[in-house]
Amino acid sequence: MHAVRLTTADAAATVTSHTASVTDWCARYVRPWWSAETVPAEEPTAAPLLVAEVDPGRYASLAAEVSGADHATVAYARTPLLVAREHAERVVTAVSPATALAYRAQTHAARLSIFGTDPGEVATAAARLVREAVRGVLLRDGWTVLHASAVERDGQVVLSFGGKGAGKTTTALTLATHGWRLLANDRVFVRPDDAGGVTVLPWPSAAALGLGLLNVFGWSDTVRHRLEAGEALHPTQDPQVTDALLAGRREPLWQGKRELKAQVFPDQFPTWLGIHLASTGRAAHLLFPQVTPDAVPTVRQHSRTVHDHDFMTGATEDRYPDVFGLAGGVDGGGHATSRETVTALLTRLPRHAVTLGHDLAANADLLRRLTS
Predict the structure, then answer these.
(1) DSSP string spanning 80-117?
(2) Of 55, 108, 210, 216, which residue has the fewest beta carbons closer than 10 angstroms?
(3) Per-residue pLDDT reduced to its tens digit, 269-284
(4) Domain co-membership, 187 together with 285
């Protein structure tokens, strides 16, 4: 039996499996943003506990059980998930036929089991759900989730806000290539501290980087050479993206109105792209970027601050609804009072709305002056 304990701040969860690649994958998924420590399987485990096994027989029996019971169908990870509940919803059993995965959650015992036929699918699901389990612990402890990118230097954190395509990632990576460390690509955990500030923690996940963005930062050839050498990006990446990268394509790749992007593991930022990562810090500055390709970087003359829509809530977690009760009854973005307190504290910080272009040196010069 293999076991790994994942920890950030005071929150922890444990994953166990008879398949080493499953626990190794979970550890890789969160490092180095969170701690991932191998522990003896017989050692008392940190709750929540996630058991993830490659077990076709167990998958088949649970699939038959759910199919024969009253169940609902929900969209989960972009595939149908059949969900059955029993014992006043304290036990949830679910099956994803598309990925051949079965789940059984005992919410009263903070225990979740995953059974599947393919080691890769089991590992991917385990990593995703153990992160959700840790999130539940953090939310119950007063943390909340902001839709923002973040970089850190000397303990000070710059948070960048905006909707999809606003330029949060461009802003963070620009600073991360000029002396800052990347703390988060798309969302962060935040909580008021005892000194009247806001502590920031990363949300581990694969980072979605468009082909155009890779080209702007001069990383296209590096990624192509790594792929040609047999290395791989995150498996959730669309195969069309891999083909485009190997072909040397540098312009954005679209599927209808959706841009297809490279999916970069956290540990590939330092090893592939030379970007150092941070694990915590204290909010010090807010940026509200807008990227316009041919624009001269400038500060926009209007005021913008943090709003309710800058927080991730249950309504915004459409890809992974909390069907297994891992949040423990707390909204997916944390308690409303926590969000209100964080908003009030962040509003006191220096903040700037900025327009950025595709001239990285000019962008960096403006951002460095604003955040120095």
Answers:
(1) EEEEEEETTTTEEEEEETTTTEEEEEEGGGTEEEEEES
(2) 108
(3) 999 999 999 999 999 9
(4) yes
